[in-house]
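User: Hey, my collaborator sent me this sequence without any context and asked if I could get a structure. I don't really work with proteins. Can you help?
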Amino acid sequence: MRPRIEGPAEGAARIAGYLRAAGLAQLEGHEGEVALAIGDFLEALGEKVEIADPATLYAYPVPLLSEDGSCSVLDELAPVPYDLAGILGGRSEQATRRLALLERLVERAQETTGSDWLGIYQRRVSPASGPVLVKLSYVGRPSRAEFPLTPEFAAGSSNSTVGLTGRALVIDDVGRHVEDGGGFYVCDDEVQSEACLPLLGEGNVVVGILDAEAKPRSFYGVPRLATLAALAIVAPAILP
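Assistant: No problem. I've predicted the 3D structure and written it out in structure-token form, which is a compact way to encode the shape of the chain:
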């Protein structure tokens, strides 16, 4: 699968529309950089994907959660890995290929931006807890698999906030953000920068998010943010 960005005029309009809808005013005037990054991702998707073991695309380690499920227990893994097959309705050839392509996109974005952590989530409905963001692919430390899409959880989570509002959050100083009352779900207490962008479908409906984190402050300036915006534009067509 290779998502198609339209001709130059249509592609530019699509980029501008996404930046406007996501509230990424800091990228206005930098649409060309976003377009170049989109081209890089599309080139990566055009390369042949080898899937040695499909099982590795579905299961990943996750931290233990607190008794009320509100936060992760740092550096303590749950005894059983999270299995995406449950929330995706089982394994299929199509889902496997899409997960492999998402893995390639995430790895390319992490290499390009130098982020310490980067992942893509999809909006799904969990039989146990209702609407959630479920992590499909990531690079970095093990982290929570599902983020509830509720106002209550969003009060302490930038992921859930972006999933509910469809507006990007770019945090230059996590410590100051939290001091000012902002929500941030801690998976790595050394992280000081975050860029969380919505994945938008038809009618700008939120179909997922991408989240990137780094230890240095003020990490996500225009060049890195342009790469993440490009990923946010390409990724919705790859979701399983």
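In plain terms: Residues 8-238 form a domain with the Beta-Lactamase fold (CATH 3.30.450.40). You can pass these tokens on to your collaborator as they are.
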